[in-house]
Design goal:
The protein is α/β, with parallel strands linked by helices. It is about 35% helix and about 25% strand. Helix 2 packs parallel to helix 11.
Length: about 290
């Protein structure tokens, strides 16, 4: 184990996990070992929190599986903080939506200049803009991999903004085969506009400038009375950078991107397919740190 944080610390009081590539295996499922972890931690008086780029509605079936009555969740990459409950509607605690004018600018950039299909996600629903068969094919792949079902598929940005009482977006996603390159283009085009651009596996994501998992986690910690130094965080992707670098113990999965491993305090010995989250937490429990 690459462990650069070797100091003694009081027991950690909160564990926060990313979902895809971290808590979920490659099949998008919760393993039995990880499944048991949430209830084990809660029984020990340790808060268990999910922090994901996924929309809140997509997360609900996984919450229902986990064997816990309720837990806090950070969704939309930190644009929404909510209290999730098994088999019951979640309760939003805080959210940060993209202003309408900024959303129009992002959508125009993606659809008109970059030629990409986009997903426009609100708290309750989502819209996909696809003007070509290729974009619709990418949508199908995105839905399958991310377990996201788009509620409305439209043919143009004009149709999107013609929707009656269109809600504000918490996150806008553009699907692309070259996310790093298109993310760089988007950052340059939107410089100074107050938009945070994140490169992901098959897409780029747009949220408000100061939105990230760490910022939402900080709000939650204030409510719970837990200092960030008392938090263990697990992640694997670029949207986990701020979270892993701000907590007491940031753990990058063995399968994490190299940039993520570079900011984490340690790299786990195991991947998401090897129950890395549960294994490391079990070690911390044995050491008296959880």
């Amino acid at each position: 184990m690459d462990c650069r944080l070797a100091r003694l610390t009081p027991p950690y009081r909160l564990v926060v996990v990313d979902m895809d590539g971290t808590y979920l295996n490659s099949a998008g499922q919760i393993s039995e070992r990880n499944y048991k972890l949430a209830s084990t931690l809660q029984q020990r008086g340790v808060h268990f929190v999910i922090a994901t780029g996924r929309p809140s509605a997509v997360l609900q079936p996984l919450i229902n599986e986990m064997g816990v009555a309720s837990l806090p969740t950070v969704t939309f990459n930190g644009a929404c903080l909510q209290h999730a409950r098994a088999n019951l509607p979640s309760t939003p605690l805080w959210y940060d939506a993209i202003e309408a004018a900024k959303a129009r600018e992002v959508v125009a950039l993606c659809t008109e200049q970059l030629g990409l299909g986009i997903s426009y996600s609100t708290r309750a629903t989502s819209y996909f803009v696809a003007s070509t068969p290729e974009q619709r094919e990418k949508l199908s792949t995105y839905e399958r991999l991310e377990k996201v079902a788009q509620d409305h598929v439209l043919g143009s940005a004009a149709e999107l903004f013609a929707v009656d009482s269109l809600p504000l977006a918490l996150k806008i996603v553009a699907l692309t085969p070259t996310p790093d390159a298109h993310a760089a283009d988007a950052r340059a085009a939107l410089s100074g506009r107050g938009i945070h651009v994140i490169s992901a596996e098959m897409h780029i994501e747009f949220v408000n400038e100061h939105v990230n998992k760490a910022a939402a986690l900080r709000r939650l910690c204030d409510v719970l009375g837990v200092p960030l130094a008392g938090v263990v965080a697990f992640g694997d992707a670029m949207n986990d950078l701020e979270m892993l670098s701000s907590v007491g113990l940031g753990v990058a999965m063995k399968n994490a991107r190299e940039a993520v491993k570079a900011v984490a305090a340690e790299t786990c010995d195991f991947t998401n397919d090897e129950d890395g989250v549960a294994r490391r937490c079990e070690e911390l429990i044995t050491q008296g740190l959880l």
